[in-house]
Amino acid sequence: MQIQTPDWVKHAVFYQIFPDRFAKSQEPHKRVLKTVSWEEWDDMPTLQGYKGGDLWGVLEQLDYLQSLGVNAIYFTPIFQSASNHRYHTHDYYQIDPMLGGNDAFKDLLVACHDRNIKVVLDGVFNHSSRGFFFFHDVLENGPHSPWVDWFKIHGWPLSPYNGEFPANYEGWADNRALPVFNHDNPEVREYIMEIAEYWIKLGIDGWRLDVPFEVKSPGFWQEFRTRVKAINPEAYIVGEVWEDSTEWLDGTQFDGVMNYLFAAPTIAFAAGDRVDMAQVQDRSYHPYPPLFAAEYGDKIQSLLELYPWEIQLTQLNLLASHDTARLISIAGGDRSSVELSTLLLLTFPGAPSIYYGDEVGLPGRLDPDSRRGFPLESQWERDVLDYHRQLISIRHNYPALRTGSYKVIYAQGALYIFARILDAEELIIAVNAGTAEVTATVKVEALTSQPSKVLYGTGEISWSDEEHSLTINIPSRSGSIFAAS
Q: What does each C-alpha distance from 222 to 189, 201, 249 come to in angstroms?
């Protein structure tokens, strides 16, 4: 079977937005809430507090996102919900009124598409919430409700709030706030398929699927793909799977997954023993123990061999998300760890994803701290923003960084060197994760040109025709990109 994935994703730079925390509209709009006391924007976020970010605010920041080089947005959930993260869905057909409702979203979608920015929404289809109308009917009417078989109910009475009693129904991760759908019920299955189709028809460019591995019904995700792709063959379907995703990346289900298998070794190599274990130990990825270049190279080669190349090019690569601590906090505040990781992210096959605020140095420990309000411009780390813009621009300007082959050419000690090659375009990327300057001479048979122009960083490179070798010098805790002159 020939695997087909959306071509635009191979050239995308994603920006992940947590809508309550990214931007509040400065323009007058008809609002559902006019006098509400929001949590202070710069205060530490709480589990249940709202800061009042909205979709109009995102629309007003599209100039900024374009200046960064972003051409795709992944939104964490935006449907009506009673939680600031909106993973507790009330109504899959309504954008949360606090975010501006359906009208704000339609305006935003048009504005994004006018700028050639794609929009991917978060589909939470494993579970709903206590406030979901169908489940609410079950709470009101018990076994008489026509919606009983939509959920996994084990006994009566149900206890949706009082933890002193058994819930008597299945909740995601035993959380009674999140009743799990019965996906074996054909009506439930059809309901979810129709939601997916509705928003694709409205014009969204894809779905990010929350905990899709929890949906065990045979053929469910195959049908989901068939129906979504029938409307838009270029729609992107990306699953939240943290580990080996071979089972879902056979070409019949997802186009990619959130690539934590890239994030973990990259952080382990770039940050090394600076990793704050308290920020990573209970997560489903493992950016520890520290890796030397050879070990990192082995893990990256194994990752690149895990899935078909067409799938590799549409993976959603990331260093942080709303489910992790931010990298600057994982690395104990070490800024070089973030820059080195970002360099590796933006030169790797697949679509890089920037978690909002990472590009201006926003810190954040584990949830809820990693979901802070986007900082005021006066608080931005300008050098962090500059290197993000520079690396994203280089990625856009050199097709080899997007779809070219990936060849490790040197991996010893703390120095890691690889090439990205597409036809005659050849780039060399070198990263020195160590605390001392390093010089290495490497025999290179794979390259036909001699990349010597420095696109990024302060490294130096020279070539020997006689030896078919290059000599490269990289300062401590830094990286460089070289291209042919």
A: 12, 19, 11
